[in-house]
């Protein structure tokens, strides 16, 4: 009952604040992972381009 009273308290509770902060932190981490995945995809694309270009070069 005490826990329910804490959660139902106007203005938020420690649990609400914790969940809000955790959600914010997870969203930031998820955004960071999406950004990292995009950078990795660009890097992979450039590697493939370099591989194709190196095959097209005519040996002297």
Automatic annotation (TrEMBL):
Record keywords, A-Z: Cytoplasm, Cytoskeleton, Microtubule, Motor protein
**What protein name does the entry list?**
LOW QUALITY PROTEIN: kinesin-like protein KIN-13A
Please tell me whether the keyword Cytoplasm is annotated for this protein: yes
UniProt entry tagged with the keyword Cytoplasm: yes
Name the InterPro entries on file.
Kinesin-like_fam
Source taxon at top rank: Eukaryota
Instruction: Please give the chief subcellular localization of this protein.
Output: cytoplasm
* Record localization: Cytoplasm, Cytoskeleton
Q: Which gene encodes it?
A: LOC109127625
What organism, scientifically named, is this protein from? Camelina sativa (False flax)
